[in-house]
């Protein structure tokens, strides 16, 4: 277990039981250079208990709007904070993700935190002139804008698409001719992916290790840039199982492969806006450094090494805490 001593800076990790949060908390603890306060709704979850065994202090604090006072208390005494927003069920015109993010940031300021690292994404609204609707990107960019206006040091990590999406949300279907990967991307367009469970931590730890150097920086976190067809081909090669790609890029294709999505029109609109944005404009703005995360984390998982490590054969996996 990591030795807790008060001489080490304390970092509060918001959403510590999330895939990203777990990675960040574990990387900070494993370094032996930080104390970690892990914020979660459920202190008795497996994820929380695992972090506790590694030396984290577990504090109950829900990620929801209207909790700024509680978050301020929860972050008290922290030198740094990793902030993330959970997946939000979007019911327009509610602005829940932005509100949660703004309140978390204001709480960090109120608690006297010196440096916040926020898990953000590009501003799709601005980059597309309002033609694509992907509020879970744009709202993070609006939170980033808010944080940049605060008198607090800040840095931003932009995680690529998660490999885990195919394990927990877009699971391949088994048929007579093998697995069908219905993928929300066209077959030949290279897009960035990462493993949130292992990639977020090294990036955020690097930033806290060199706090001044990374002040005001927005940094992509990438494991590999590859096409949907390459993902399927790699899966076949690694697992030896027959599998083929099917497009779920258009609305009709998406609803054909995932009919249950039809019950949630904002989700469908958002998914389509997101993938059209990524394909037509690029997931990252042109000026981003696409090599940084792989330079500072040379063990960053490619899709192939992710598959081998996870020993994933196409089954449904859950990463719930
Ligand atoms: N999927 C992708 O390809 C992708 C790519 C880039 C960025 N992102 C962003 O990543 C974020 C999600 O990160 P993740 O996948 O690491 O999270 P996750 O594993 O889904 O976990 C989210 C955590 O937030 C807490 N939570 C969930 N729903 C909540 C609610 N309604 N109220 C309060 N707390 C809630 C839960 O922790 P407790 O139970 O402990 O409270 C949960 O462990 C989203 O903002 C998403 O937009 C996703």
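^ structure tokens above, recovered residues below v
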């Amino acid at each position: 277990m990591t030795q807790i001593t008060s001489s080490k800076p304390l970092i509060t990790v918001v959403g510590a039981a999330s895939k990203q949060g777990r990675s960040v908390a574990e990387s900070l603890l494993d370094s032996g250079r930080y104390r970690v306060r892990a914020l979660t709704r459920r202190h008795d979850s497996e994820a929380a208990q695992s972090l506790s065994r590694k030396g984290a202090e577990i504090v109950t604090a829900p990620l929801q709007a209207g909790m700024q006072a509680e978050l301020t208390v929860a972050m008290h005494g922290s030198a740094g904070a990793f902030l993330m927003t959970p997946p939000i069920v979007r019911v327009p015109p509610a602005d829940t993700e932005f509100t949660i993010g703004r309140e978390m940031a204001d709480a960090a300021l109120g608690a006297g935190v010196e440096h916040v690292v926020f898990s953000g994404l590009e501003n799709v609204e601005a980059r597309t002139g309002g033609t694509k609707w992907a509020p879970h990107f744009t709202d993070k960019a609006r939170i980033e804008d808010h944080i940049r206006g605060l008198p607090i040091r800040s840095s931003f990590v932009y995680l690529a698409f998660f490999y885990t999406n195919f394990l927990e949300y877009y699971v391949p279907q088994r048929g007579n001719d093998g697995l069908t990967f219905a993928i929300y991307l066209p077959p030949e367009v290279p897009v960035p992916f990462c493993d949130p469970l292992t990639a977020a931590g090294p990036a955020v730890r690097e930033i806290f290790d060199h706090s001044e150097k990374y002040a005001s920086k927005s940094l992509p976190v990438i494991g590999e840039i590859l096409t949907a067809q390459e993902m399927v081909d790699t899966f076949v090669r690694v697992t030896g199982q027959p599998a083929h790609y099917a497009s779920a890029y258009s609305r009709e294709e998406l609803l054909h492969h995932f009919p249950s999505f039809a019950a949630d029109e904002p989700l469908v609109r958002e998914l389509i806006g997101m993938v059209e944005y990524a394909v037509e404009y690029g997931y990252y703005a042109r000026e981003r450094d696409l090599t940084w995360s792989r330079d500072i984390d040379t063990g960053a998982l490619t899709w192939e090494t992710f598959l081998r490590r996870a020993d994933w054969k196409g089954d449904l996996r859950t990463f719930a805490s």
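The mean pLDDT is 96.
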